[in-house]
Design a protein that fits this description.
Elements (H helix, E strand, L loop, with lengths): L1 E7 L5 E12 L5 E10 L1 H24 L1 E7 L4 E4 L1 H7 L7 E2 H5 L4 H16 L4 E9 L5 E11 L7 E8 L1 H15 L13
Antiparallel strand pairs: 1-2, 2-3, 4-5, 4-9, 5-6, 7-8, 8-9
């Protein structure tokens, strides 16, 4: 038999316990004794709750900032994404990902920039790369993404690249709108005095 219990100590501190017990019977089936163990799991529960809270906070921050994470295995080309990265790219969470297929969704200049950055990371000529890229989602939306990547090559582990993807589409569109307002008349659309 196993159960969980809360214990209130004389000093007022609450402790969480896991209790496991077993009945020992005699040859006739009568209960002879009860043996068991009590394990204090308070610190483990607190650590688990704190980790869960941190993960929820990081998920909220990633969602608000539209920032997703990724991990690329250089040997196999397989890619792991955070849930926010799936949302940014418009891909169903949990879909298996391979670098070669993902690169096809970027326009040609972006694909070239990303491959060059990956090569610099893989050859060791760079430890960190940042690139802006144009991505087309499966439903046809064009996104402006800022991708920052680091090489992870700890001794004894496989070489991989980890990083962040940030959706900067709204930021880019706002910049273009400001540029338009600064250089063209809002009523006629003609160049203004600044361009003249």
């Amino acid at each position: 038999c196993a159960m969980e219990a809360d214990l209130l100590r004389p000093d007022g501190e609450r402790r969480s316990l896991e209790v496991v017990g077993e009945v020992i019977r005699d040859d006739l089936g009568n209960i002879e004794r009860l043996v068991g163990a009590v394990h204090d799991v308070t610190d483990e529960r607190l650590a688990t709750a704190a980790a869960r809270w941190r993960n929820k906070l990081l998920d909220r921050i990633a969602s608000v900032g539209r920032i997703g994470g990724f991990d690329l295995d250089l040997r196999t080309g397989s890619v792991q994404w955070t849930d926010e990265n799936y949302r940014i790219h418009g891909v169903e969470p949990g879909t298996p990902l391979v670098l070669k297929e993902l690169l096809e969704r970027y326009d040609e200049p972006s694909r070239r920039r990303l491959l060059e950055a990956l090569k610099r990371l893989d050859t060791g000529s760079s430890r960190e790369e940042t690139a802006e890229a144009q991505y087309v989602t499966p439903d046809g939306r064009r996104l402006a993404l800022r991708i920052t990547a680091n090489i992870e090559d700890e001794p004894g582990s496989r070489r991989r690249i980890t990083g962040l993807t940030q959706d900067i589409t709204e930021e880019r569109e706002a910049g273009e709108r400001i540029e338009q307002l600064a250089h063209f008349d809002t009523l006629t659309g003609l160049p203004n005095r600044f361009l003249f």
